[in-house]
Design goal:
Two copies of one chain form a homodimer.
Chain A lengths: L5 H8 L3 H8 L7 H14 L5 H8 L4 E6 L5 H17 L2 E6 L4 H9 L8 E4 L8 H8 L4 E4 L10 E4 L1 H14 L5 E6 L4 H16 L7 E5 L3 H13 L6 E4 L2 H14 L8 E5 L13 E4 L2 H16 L10 E4 L2 E3 L7
Parallel strand pairs in A: 1-2, 1-3, 3-4, 4-5, 5-11, 6-7, 6-8, 8-9, 9-10
Antiparallel strand pairs in A: 10-12
Helix pairs in contact in A: 1-2, 5-12, 6-7, 8-9, 10-11
Chain B binds a DNA duplex through helix 2 and helix 4.
Chain lengths: ~325, ~325
DNA sequence: TTTTTTTGCGAAAACGTTTGCGAGCCGATG
DNA sequence: CATCGGCTCGCAAACGTTTTCGCAAAAAAA
């Protein structure tokens, strides 16, 4: 019922408000008999303590916030799935904020969390020159855990993947199967993930002595821009014979551009990329992907955040957790 | 800063707490001069009013809750995208709850919202015999708006699509292009969307006088079960020559089962289905889909919810809003 | 001038919980 | 018998806002 509060219960039971409160929270200083009486009535009315009053009094919200660039992205939606699972187990609530790759929005949103709205923050950052809002969280003693897109300068636990390794392995295999000119497609790029993946790409080239053949294509977040970029590259004089996409969207864009330009994958162009598309194997041709354990990342990050919130010591490996991705080699890279 | 509250500001400015509060909220009874003084200091400290105190006092949380069966589903993640956009514009926060198609969880989660944690609820329900928790919301005067999966018995605004029409059109076109035995794949079924889509399917069959050839396959939510079901149907004596999937997952399952059974789409089996996969055109073969305007549904539903929250009158069409889907006819249904 | 209105601000009560402390009561212990 | 300690429970103070009311002083009207 809407209008039930402790006062009403207390009146009806001839008890003090404090007694009712304690009874409901199973305090040891309340007799079993009254506990039963209280709980019975509370049940009857379907009483739920007002969360704002509780949060105000206890200075904790039983709520965590998740900030991600976007949600129409399998990686993030899977991660959120993991996060929500853990949160629900813990009896916590989950606030979601989307920044749409806009660092100003990210700043504003994070500011809103400072004053107790959330007990902790899980964030996959968007690109920016600096992150004062995250520093502010540290000062406000709001626990943060990064996942996937981290910022190195800020001292907070992070859950990431061995992306550099997998970028390296993927590119090496491309080279070994005969690709000569691999283009690396990346989002505008000072992001941790872009850097790491690019490092892996370059390492593979270097190892094969083909560093001078590197082609790095920076695509902006704008929808059409990346396709225009791609078209230019693919119709240029020295067309690459493979592309390695740092993010899912760019792999998909490549397929679309190839269709438009009537290029055949993999004959004319091998395509591989980081992606959590569960349907990559249904593509024409099936798309070679590096898939990250998004769900596990979410669970892991949430788990660490809760340990922080509960003031527990972090386990040795938890300050920087690296989860293994894996490579699904499919026909889009068959030479 | 963490420890800034009205009291601190008031002390430092030689003002009363109430004056500071009013100044920050641009009350007309505060002079421009003091407003400026107050705001300057508040800015300096980066003061944010404690949301729990505000919510407690004002009996509103500036938060809405979104309850969906799952998030690893393009329809829902796109819808959430739209919802979040509107909410952020309005300065509202968004709580997310996943029910994983579990009606008990849905009930529990919705109970938690009763006591002011959220000012409104956007829900796409999971199947259940009854929905007492939603009735309770109405009694608690918590505004609800349904989207996509609605429950007819409950009197609340709903945003849906013309799914029956599109199911009908799709099946008709399948029949007209020569399919004889169309199987309708659906999730366990008393859900509004299942019923409506099935109605469209049956209507098409009836119109062509083939109602007796209907094949309705109820697949459970369990992952493997639906594939087993499919295999049985497709290896039976009277194999269907087309399937129409009521939900995305079943269309994908069909592709996988066909691959396993070495059935060719569309030669051996036409496939179509409701789906918001943006990459359906990249499938092998490109998948014919009925795509719903998920993003717009989210925006629309959120808009209506806010009108409810703000106590405004609903516009005539808003009690039941039907948005148009559209059919993307592709090679998976080419005969 | 006096009266009324307006302007700007302060004191204090609320919102619904949780919690420190103290009070009464009981049985047990000295 | 006096004291003590353990059980239950009530009183009241918090938590940080918002808001009602009231009160002066200044401005306007008389």
């Amino acid at each position: 019922m809407a209008g039930t509060d402790l006062k009403k219960l207390a009146r009806e039971l001839n008890l003090a408000v404090s007694t009712v409160s304690r009874a409901l929270r199973d305090s040891h200083e309340i007799s079993a008999a009254t506990k039963a009486r209280v709980k019975a009535l509370a049940d009857k009315y379907g009483f739920r303590p007002n969360p704002h009053a509780s949060s105000l009094r206890q200075a904790k919200s039983r709520t965590i916030a998740v900030v991600v660039p976007e949600i129409r992205n399998n990686f993030f939606s899977q991660a959120i799935n993991g996060i929500e699972l853990v949160a629900q187990e813990k009896g916590y609530h989950v606030l979601i904020y989307l920044t749409h790759e806009n660092s100003k929005q990210e700043r504003e949103v994070v500011q809103l969390l400072q004053n107790g709205r959330a007990d902790g923050l899980l964030i996959s950052v968007t690109e920016a020159e600096s992150y004062p809002h995250l520093e502010a969280c540290r000062e406000a003693e709001l626990p943060i855990v990064f996942f996937d897109r981290v910022v190195d300068e800020i001292d907070a636990p992070r859950v990431i993947t061995d992306e550099k390794l997998l970028a390296y392995q993927t590119c090496r295999r491309l080279l070994e199967s005969g690709c000569e000119r691999i283009a690396f497609l990346t989002m505008a790029g000072n992001l941790s993930i872009s850097r790491h993946r690019q490092d892996g790409y370059l390492q593979a080239l270097k190892e094969k002595g083909k560093e001078h053949l590197s082609i790095i294509v920076e695509c902006s977040a704008a929808d059409d821009h990346s396709r225009e970029q791609l078209k230019k590259i693919l119709s240029g004089p020295q067309r690459p014979d493979a592309v390695f996409a740092a993010v899912e969207k760019l792999a998909v864009d490549t397929y679309e551009v190839c269709a438009e330009m009537e290029l055949n994958i993999p004959e004319d162009l091998c395509v591989a990329g980081f992606s959590n598309l569960t349907v990559a194997s249904l593509f024409n041709p099936p798309l070679t992907t590096v898939v990250q354990p998004a769900y596990e990342i979410g669970k892991e990050a949430a788990g660490i955040l809760f340990r922080l919130i509960e003031g527990k010591k972090l386990l040795p490996g938890e300050q920087k957790r690296v989860l293994p991705s894996h490579l699904e080699w499919r026909r889009s890279t068959a030479r």
